Amino acid sequence: MNSSKPQWEQVGEAFVQHYYNTFDSSRSNLGPLYRENSMLTFEGEKYLGVQQIVGKLTALPFQKVQHQIVTCDCQPTQTQPSGILVFVNGNLLVDDSQNPLKFSQCFYLLPDSTNPASYWVHNDMFRLNYG
Amino acid sequence: MNSSKPQWEQVGEAFVQHYYNTFDSSRSNLGPLYRENSMLTFEGEKYLGVQQIVGKLTALPFQKVQHQIVTCDCQPTQTQPSGILVFVNGNLLVDDSQNPLKFSQCFYLLPDSTNPASYWVHNDMFRLNYG
C-alpha cells in the first residue's frame, strides 16, 4: 500500500482486494461487510439487507469464480457521515471458462459509527458488460 | 416517466437523459450540473470543481459524440443529505466511427440545500471498457 495515496484511496483499494478475495474463496463470508440497510442491484435485480444480498450472491450458479481488477477508482463524499465511492472495472472468470466476462461494479462504503476506521457496504451495483 | 417507480429512480433516470443530451449537443453547458467541490475521475485522471471538470470534458478530442444508455441503475443513500447513486453502462459513438465504445459511469447526486428537488453532481467516475 502506497502511503502517498489519499486515505480514501487506500481504504477503497484495500476494501476491493478483501471483497473479491472473500467472494472468490467463500462468498458466504461476505455477510459482515453488509448491514440491514445495505442495497445490492445485481444485473438490475434489487436486494435489501444482509440476508437477501448474501442469499443472492451464494445462489449464483457457478462453483469457481475469479475477479480480476483492471481499474479501481475511488472518491470521498462530503456527506454525514463521509463515505467512499469505489468504482471497479474488471474481468470475471467463471468455472473453467477461458473467456473472461467484463464487469463493472460500484460500491458506496460508509464508516462504522463506533469504529470509523471500519467500513461497510451501504450501496452495491453490479453489471456484466456484454461484448 | 413511470410514476410507480421510486422517486430516486425517476430523478436518476431523468438526470442521465438530461446529462447525456447536454453532453452530446453542447458539453460546455454541463457546468451548472457541477459545483466547486464536485469530483470527476475520467479514465483515472482526477479533476476538482466546475472549471477543471468542464475544461476536461470540452477538451475531449472529438467533434461529434453520442451516448447510448444500455442500463441505468439507481439507489438512494441514507446519509445527510440523502443522495442518489446512478450507475450507467452504455455505448459511445464518437465522430463518424461505426464501432461503439462501451463505457461505464457512476454519478453521485446530492440535492441543492435551498431547492431539494434540484440535484447536482458531487461525484462522477467514468471508464471506457475496452473489449
UniProtKB/TrEMBL annotation, chains A, B:
Residues annotated as domain NTF2: 11-128
CDD domains: NTF2
Entry's localization field: Cytoplasm; Nucleus
Keyword Transport attached: yes
GO cellular component, one term: cytoplasm
GO BP terms in the entry: mRNA transport; protein import into nucleus
Pfam family, one: NTF2
Function of the protein: Has a role in nuclear-cytoplasmic transport of proteins and mRNAs.
Name of the protein described by the UniProt record: NTF2-related export protein
Origin species: Galdieria partita
